[in-house]
Design brief:
TIM Barrel; 19 helices; 8 strands
């Protein structure tokens, strides 16, 4: 008699037990799917939070109540006042002045060069008053000529020019001694019927109190962002008034005119001072509100963004304006809520597309690979997709605004492209079971070089990333004042490199000495940034952490 097989034996052999293949297969499909949905959800949530508009409860610019006065410079694009031969056309100036007349009663100009001598005449046509500035420096003959021009304009346009300011931060820049500045002020004061002043930072007025005898009123600059210890944006308006009150005590009987007060809308942090659209709008309204209640005159700095300043002051220098330097339009709609990311929907869409691309790349590589794929690898894919999806829009925006000239474009562009391509290449390598290539496999001795095209491509992008990160690290160590923090692009690149390094180990016989050098440099840069920038600057903290991640990835990939 033939016996039947035990009832539990055949199903086990067929792989249909509760712990068998039939159960594991749905899990292998479900885990990546759930991680993908989680990634998409996190990207949407973060961007909705980042772009959330803030209602200030008032209009940052009220067209029914004009500003008292605002600084104006006409330079657009690559036009710059450092080139005396550049003459701004009257039509260009007239176009700006017509727009400014809608939001202010007065403009302050800093020079009578570069075509600015036409401003009083053009301002008279739209009902604007002008505070006329004379830009003086080391060349005394040129100073005398410019003062002569200003005196002539002040006497010709007596109904337009309300004051003449001889010199702007001359003592701060060290271009003239106090005696030379006194002489320049006196040469103008006796020949015009309007008040004459000199403008400098508030602390320099306290250093030269005798200068008060030479002027009709004291013009101080208070830009809280540039203070040695900058206050946070919410405390900056009171800081301006406190500085003004200190100067008022030192010059009793003199009017103290705040000739510059403003906050940047974009750029690198200094301590806890964060340039942003929301902070600029809030600072301006709070300052003007406080100044109005205390009957203090304020000239807002400034009318338009000035792109040329990026060459000297970095990104932040070009974004003090209330009107955009390119479109010449107000940055903020009157009465509307203010967002730091007005194009956030486009940035969100790009981030979602990037996350999908990362998951698709990983899936295609997985389908071509015979190696088993564990959950940690899909978690690594999700981490790279989520980080990249959140930061891509931010990275692109930063690169557009922070790059200036060919060198800046190459620096920002190379890091952005590498940070965008690297997650895709790394996920392909991760799911294919390939380790990160050593730099020696690319540029080492011929016998060590790899012939695999995917490995060569990944190695080339990795090398570009390391070099771009090195340039940023050295810049933040040796020229930090005007350097932006590449935290977004750097993090996009560091995360996929790290996960591939941890999950796909390199063969022990491959030499990776160069990686150790880069890792050491990034670690040193991170320590220096932390010590130099302080713990209140979250941009510097984030950048230091990104350098640590990148350094850790390269250090872990070295030969063991």
């Amino acid at each position: 008699m033939q016996l039947d097989a035990p009832t539990g034996l055949s199903p086990n052999r067929a792989g249909r037990s509760p712990g068998g293949t039939a159960t594991r297969a749905p899990l292998r499909v479900a885990a990546p799917l759930w991680l993908f949905l989680l990634s998409i959800g996190m990207i949407v949530a973060v961007w909705c939070w980042l772009a959330m508009p803030v209602s200030l409860g008032h209009a940052p610019v009220d067209l029914a109540k004009k500003l008292d006065c605002v600084s104006y410079a006409p330079f657009r694009g690559h036009q710059t006042p450092w080139n005396s031969s550049v003459i701004i056309s009257p039509d260009q100036i007239a176009e700006d002045i017509a727009d400014l007349a809608k939001i202010t009663n007065c403009i302050r100009i800093y020079s009578v060069e570069n075509g600015l001598d036409k401003v009083p005449e053009l301002a008279s046509k739209v009902g604007l008053k002008v505070i006329l500035g004379v830009w003086i420096g080391r060349d005394r003959l040129k100073n005398a000529s410019l003062i002569e021009t200003a005196v002539s304009l002040a006497n010709q346009f007596t109904d337009v020019v309300t004051a003449v300011i001889v010199g702007n931060e001359v003592l701060l820049r060290g271009e003239l001694p106090e005696a030379g500045l006194r002489e320049a002020i006196r040469s103008a004061k006796g020949r015009v019927s309007v008040p004459v002043s000199y403008a400098d930072t508030w602390d320099f007025w306290l250093r030269y109190p005798e200068l008060g005898h030479e002027v009709d009123f004291v013009t101080i600059h208070v830009l809280p962002y540039w203070e040695d210890v900058p206050p946070r944006a919410e405390h900056a308006p009171q800081h301006v008034l406190d500085a003004r009150n200190k100067v008022a005590l030192a010059f009793p009987g003199k009017e103290i005119f705040i000739g510059e007060a403003g906050w940047p809308s974009r750029g690198r942090m200094r301590d806890g001072a964060l340039p942003s659209r929301i902070n600029q709008a809030r600072f301006t309204f709070d300052l003007l509100d406080k100044a109005s209640r205390e009957n203090v005159r304020v000239n807002l700095f400034e009318a338009y963004d000035e792109p040329w300043k990026r060459q000297w002051e970095g990104t932040v220098g070009a974004h003090w304006g209330w009107l955009d330097g390119e479109s010449r339009r107000l940055k903020y709609s009157p009465g509307a809520a203010v967002s730091n990311y007005p194009f956030w929907k486009l940035q969100l869409g790009a981030g979602l597309a990037f996350s999908i691309a990362v998951f698709v790349t990983a899936l295609l590589a997985r389908l071509r690979s015979a190696a088993p794929t564990a959950l940690p690898r899909w978690l690594a894919v999700a981490a790279s997709a989520t980080v990249g999806g959140i930061l891509l829009g931010m990275s692109v925006e930063n690169a557009l605004y922070e790059s200036y000239g060919f060198a800046g474009l190459m620096r920002q562009g190379s890091l952005l492209i590498a940070a965008t391509v690297l997650p895709l290449l790394c996920m392909n390598a991760l799911m294919s079971g390939r380790a990160l290539p050593a730099f020696a496999e690319l540029i080492g001795p011929r016998e060590m070089r790899t012939r695999s095209l995917p490995t060569l491509l990944l190695g080339a992008v990795l090398l570009v990333t390391a070099l771009a990160a090195t340039e940023s690290a050295l810049g933040l160590m040796f020229d930090p004042r005007s350097r932006d923090f590449p935290f977004a692009s750097l993090t996009m690149a560091a995360v996929p490199i790290l996960v591939v390094t941890l999950l796909n180990r390199r063969k022990p016989e491959v030499c990776a000495t160069s990686e150790s050098v880069f890792a050491g440099l990034f670690a040193a840069a991170a320590v220096y940034i932390l010590l130099n920038e302080g713990i209140q600057n979250w941009q510097s903290l984030w950048t230091a952490a990104a350098f640590v991640l990148l350094g850790a990835a390269l250090w872990s990939s070295r030969d063991r």
